Amino acid sequence: MSFARFAVRRLLEMAATLLGASFVIFGAMYLAPGDPASFLLSGRSASPAALAAINSQYHLDDPFAVRYFRWLGQVLQGDFGRSIEYRTDVSKLLADRLPSTLLLVVMALVLVVVAGLALGWIGAVRGGATDSTILVTTTIAVGTPSFVAAILLQGLFSVRLGWFPTSGTGQGLGDMIWHLTLPAIALALYLIGMLARVTRAAMLEQLGSEHVAVARSRGVPERQVIWRHVFRNALGTVLTTGGLIVSTLIICTVLVESAFSIGGIGQLLELATTTKDFPTVQAISLLIVGLFMTVNLIVDLLFPLVDPTVTLGARRSTA
Predict the structure, then answer these.
(1) For this protein, what is any one GO molecular function term (predicted)?
(2) pLDDT by residue (tens digit) across 293-314?
(3) Among the four given CATH numbers 1.50.10.10, 1.10.10.10, 1.10.3720.10, 1.20.120.1200, the one describing domain 97-306
């Protein structure tokens, strides 16, 4: 299948999936207990006329189908509605909070890729006590939830040692990076352990393969054997975890942002869910689904470049 045909097919699939996800996301909020009007009133009593005015303003009294298609039409125009909690456009809320979340995710992703691949490589190539130490370390990392890592790092490096801020995002790129260093480590720790173990297992499998033995018998330098015949062939297996890694980063961002009081998308989603701020929850949920699908599309497009034996459109093994 040609690249253009595959890309068009996947984009159509993404559009159909987003449409289905939009219906589920929109409907799920209205199945949850509670009434958004009660949050707007903050527990105060209101006359039937005042309650009717609120319902009319936010279209809460319209039939479900009418609300859904009105909302979908607005989303297609880039309008996610007006936040019930903040009384402002959801698009503005996302624009204000998205940069800090994206920077946090990017910093954590860099840590995961660099540390995960390096530890997996070292463990597979050196073996012995080094491999055992890396296995124990990555096992501890995998067994440490992000919110636990956030509390431990905050208590040690922020409260006791005072090396990093305890909360906030800072002002300016340099200050933001300094504020988000500990949150990025807490967010990346679990995934570093996971990626390291996946990389190690994939490289060990390649080290025991026939083509590696043939390359060594021909006198190919060990460094080239490891790079060209072991690591490059192991990348196919590693790449299949790319979607899972990014998905986990985005999901765990909610916990880490709350622990460090980072005013990002994750913290906004938590607050909006608590207050039944329908437009905000729906916009963030749809954004997350779109990011998931975009990452999976990128992985599918990169996979044939990493493994030439795989063609576009072929099913990948996720084992």
Answers:
(1) dipeptide transmembrane transporter activity
(2) 888 788 777 766 666 555 555 5
(3) 1.10.3720.10
